[in-house]
Amino acid sequence: PGSALGLRPPDDAMVVFVPGHGQGLGEDVYRDFVDLMGLDPDDARYFDYRWVTGDADPYRASMRAPIHPTTASLNAYLAGVADGERPVWLVGFSKGGATVAELIAAWDHGLFGPAANVEGAMLLDPPMAKGVLGTLQSMGGVVGPVPDDGGYDPVDCSFLWFGCHDARAHLGDASGVEVIVVRNPRAAVTSFSDRPAGLRVVDAPDAGPGPWGQVFKNPFKLFSRLSEAHESVLSDPEVVRCLVNEMQEKGSCPLDVSRYPSLRMPARLTSAARLF
After folding, report:
1. C-alpha distances in angstroms, 148 versus 64, 104, 126, 165, 175?
2. pTM value?
3. What are phi and psi of 189, to 5 degrees?
């Protein structure tokens, strides 16, 4: 193994990768990411949505798998690949990130048993929004560029005697799993823009235009630009560096803390709109 970035993950660590909605085999989805990490192929494992749906086609399975059975299947898979005391890190992209978040929340509540030597998790631009955007993300398979979350809902009412709460808040604290969310602000609708308490969120660097910038530049390429920005976290050297640094020393990711940019209209347009 060797990394063009000069990175070296901990020798004893295992990384389990979970692909997103409409993606194929994890080995293909994360090939660039693994190469940039310099991760030994023997230290990488890949979750397969076919274990959830029974489909022969991994693409179709990733689109059809709902969040709750997928979470249970991922938990069972982790129990099967756990190798003694080896530390495990989870990496989930898009729908895979929402699945990892759902599983960690279950561990936080004492469900499924202990976290199978999982030390940390990186969620790559996960569709974990509330409100209208969250509803659209749960129908992402039919809503253009909005990614599908498999039915993930951050409003957790499973413990009714305590009332409902944000399942993203303080994610991983109770189960001892370090969670870091990498958002790409340029992708906008593919992630979320609020501030869950106690959830560590950083911004992925992206020199391309955001949604409003793309509208001014070429509105016909807006959807393709959002998709490009969303998937860029899979091959971004700085995102990879963030993960490897965190594996070596918690809190050492060099990415900036997220500014949670809103989707509001630019001020100059808002001022102009008042004239009409």
Report:
1. 10, 19, 10, 22, 27
2. 0.90
3. -70, -5
